[in-house]
Fold this protein.
Amino acid sequence: MIRRPPRSTLFPYTTLFRSIDLTMDDSQRDRVLWFTIATDEKRSYKKAFRAIIATYALWSNSDYFSDILGSVVSSLVYDKDWKKLYTLCRITGKNGPEVIHDRVVYILNRVVSLGLFLLPDNMAESECLSHEPDRDSKIFAVNYYYLLNSYMKGKRKRVFNDKPKNEAGKHTSNKKSTDFTFIKGFITYGMFIDAYRRAKNDGDGLKGQELFEIAGDLMRRGFYRRSLNLMRIYLGRRNGTPEKNELQLYYPEIFTDSVEKYSARENIPDFILYAVIREESHFDKDIVSRAGAVGLMQLLPVTAKDTARKLKLKNIDLKDPVTNLNLGTKHLGSLYSRLNSVPKAILSYNAGLQRLRGWERDLKTLPDDLFIEAVPYKETRDYFKKILISSIFYARLYDRLTAVQAIHSFFPKR
């Protein structure tokens, strides 16, 4: 039997509830409710919020509504409507989605600690605010809010095994699978793209160690992006915390001389620059996006020409790794100098300086971590989170920094 929300929340959705066929399956009902909320969101996030309150008791799969909830959360932070955000916290604490609940709990704890929101007496001991996010995430390698929550509380958290006990992906049987032998034949004869396609599309019969070995073969031969794609599949199949040697293949240091040279010039930690390159291009020097961004740091030609003029460079080739890293790091460094904030420089690198300045005018009182939560574009918010998480892995794998120390480079003031 479908649970009805409280009568006080039904209006103006009475007609909707009457029109829902009680014989609908769960997924069909979720699609109808999602469409209703999405339609209201196009008018205003406040209408969408009311629709969420009115319909949440009918949701079967709360994860299905994550995109709309995420957008509404950002709008609430933008308008500093902490009371409504607390209401969402209570809802998502009961029914999920967990990724939204982790986010809302983090935001509320921060605004309470900063004195931006005073909880009423009956909320002071709320289970909502005492929730601790899990380490693992369905979206990112590690839960972003698990890491930030640890940082704000000064806790040290482990993100991988520093001292591997076993060889990565080791199996008790030494017998090679038929698929592995076939794919290794492609590699032996230099047919690397064919090997990659076979491993990616038809590699269900590969053992873990075999997929790991093929990814390593591609990495050593310069097929970095394809190697990372196979490693993503490998780690997705793997149970438990990844070992250090596995993560070094998933977070490789490539073009080291140029990265160290240009990161030092711009006073940007090299682990942040590696993270930007990894998330922008997966180290594919020839990649071109649909928007026309080129190379390792995905530079638009107009941006590259402007930056090249400042460096007095002519006849630039954006598919040349050294040139691309020179120009891309200079552009990122220029944004950092103007904004005096690593998070805002990264947001601006993705969304543009003009948009960033507009957000700054409206959100000048928010610290950087909450500023990110208010950014209206999910792509840009997720971009920053990926950069921070990748930076933590690079800092730990190669610079022996803790997660807290790496995050400090982004948020120096707690």
